[in-house]
Amino acid sequence: MDNSNSRSCSSRLVLCGKSEAENEIARWLKSNNALKLPEATQFSILLHSEIVVDTQQCNNNNNEEEEEGDDWFNVQSYMNSLSTNQFGRFLVWSPRLTSTHDVVSTNFLELPVGAVCVADVQYKGRGRSNNVWESPKGCALFSFTVQMEDGRVVPLLQYVVSLAVTEAIKDICDKNGLPYIDVRIKWPNDLYLNGLKVGGVLCTSTYKSKKFNISAGIGLNVDNEKPTTCLNAVLKELCGDAHQIRREEIISAFFNKFENFYNLFINQGELVLPYCKVISINKVPS
């Protein structure tokens, strides 16, 4: 591992669970060096309980390229806002990562189903048709795992994910008394705001032991106005600086909403899709 402070702060994977049972999984993964790490980069694996002192050391680093500690994903705030039974409860977080999607798909069998990987910055983000790009600071960048048995409905999961994103944003606005930010779905998996793309959804799957192992990835412009616009820029236009949405709010609200939609989807299948279409399809011009 590079001995510089900058490298040690960025090249880390932090593991955290919402419950003691999930934290025990984190301890096992670390002690057994069980995770497959991205490319040839050397990452340090840390438990969330171990990072307080290390974070202070990183904050003392004056390297301009280093991620500021205040801008890092707030793991505790995220966990406190999460109210799910399965999804998002086991977290892998890194300040800088190649791709959250690659981490969860490569480690699908090592991680509990529903685990999520979050990055502050990713430099090999994945999209449809194998597109790769660098995601700027300020995006909500996360991927999580889902396991399904009925292959007929697997392709429909991306619609449920997209719907959960838009409804999570609505819930945050309602909770904080904010004007509704009207993020819309451009079928099948792009997210638009005021006619500009602000995010997207990617779902990939493999089949093993009669189950579909699905990795679902989401990218959403929360606090980065470039290259298009972002949630906080639009919110500022509507109500000033009274409230800025944080990534932790978005991701926890997403999982709270997604788990409800997913359970409905599994129980009723395609009956859920007309609801998805009513609120989203054809709202954004092609």
Automatic annotation (TrEMBL):
Domain (BPL/LPL catalytic) ranges: 76-266
GO cellular component terms, A-Z: cytoplasm
Keywords, in A-Z order: ATP-binding, Helicase, Hydrolase, Ligase, Nucleotide-binding
Coiled coil: none
Signal sequence bounds: none
Highest rank taxon of the organism: Eukaryota
Recorded GO MF terms: biotin--[biotin carboxyl-carrier protein] ligase activity; helicase activity
Pfam families, sorted: BPL_LplA_LipB
NCBIfam families xrefs: birA_ligase (TIGR00121)
Annotated family: Belongs to the biotin--protein ligase family.
Full protein name: ATP-dependent 5'-3' DNA helicase hcs1
Species the sequence originates in: Turnera subulata
